[in-house]
Amino acid sequence: MDLNAVAMFVAVIKAQSFSKAATELGVTKSTISKKISELEAFLGTTLIRRTTRSLQLTQMGAEFYEQCATSLTALRDAAENAQAAGTEPRGHLRVTCPADFVPAIMGPVFAGFMQAYPKITLEVILTDKPLDLVMDNIDVAIRIGNLSDSALMSRRIGREVFQLLASPAYFDHAPPLREPGDLRDHECLIFAPKPELRIWHLQDGERRLRIEPGIKFISNNISMIKTLAVLGAGITLLPVSSCQEEIAAGRLSVLLPELSMGATPIHLVYQKQPFKSPKIQTFVSYVETHVRSQFP
């Protein structure tokens, strides 16, 4: 039985409102509704009769509430005592993050985490589509960009900086890049998971520039763009963190280093729940510690 669902049920009855309980717990109304429906399905009985204006407990719901309300405080105390006593985190942890973000940054972090916490099984879903943490049963998501769902807990772990990059081999057959306006006359490799990214918005201190690069190739995949750039196919605008190895080896060079696309925040996001999950708390703290140093 899901204890978070039980806690949400108790909160709804105390508040006499799904909306008020959602605000109190810091989750969405739809999350609470889904969790209570799952609880009723698990118990095989209806706990609440819902109308447009009121909530009414069934007889079984009233009995269940009576027993649960008096037990939740004791359960929370017991859980906190167990955690304080050093209970080793364990269980299955589902994490999602952008596909291109993992190999360069998260691979070593995941390896270190699994070695440090061998009783946690880590499942990683790589996708550039933002997954719903409730509907897709996700414990933690790594999100790049500004957050839109204020009901989720979040930890900022860094920021992503995009800069102009090219292989030295590209300039064997291309003129030098002396100023941003020259990009219109160069062969450019465009990373554009969204149509608006076909236009490059760059900044140099307070100066803001809107550049329409000479498009030679477009893809929504960083790895593909990076491979072509290393082969000398053109100039690109990519996150520096995903190209550190190529830059260090001299296969890619930063061009006009004073220019960059505005820094994009990187967050860990997870659901706010009445009962803290040791595996989630441990993962969030570990990643925050080991990833933050890799970003400017």
UniProtKB/TrEMBL annotation:
Residues 1-58 form the HTH lysR-type domain. Coiled coil: none annotated. The keyword DNA-binding applies. It comes from the Bacteria. Keywords: DNA-binding, Transcription, Transcription regulation. GO terms for molecular function: DNA-binding transcription factor activity; sequence-specific DNA binding. One of its GO terms (biological process) is DNA-templated transcription. InterPro entries: LysR-type_TF_proteobact-type (IPR058163), LysR_HTH_N (IPR000847), LysR_subst-bd (IPR005119), WH-like_DNA-bd_sf (IPR036388), WH_DNA-bd_sf (IPR036390). PANTHER family: HTH-TYPE TRANSCRIPTIONAL ACTIVATOR TTDR-RELATED, HTH-TYPE TRANSCRIPTIONAL REGULATOR. Belongs to the LysR transcriptional regulatory family. This is LysR family transcriptional regulator. The lineage of its organism: Bacteria, Pseudomonadati, Pseudomonadota, Alphaproteobacteria, Rhodospirillales.
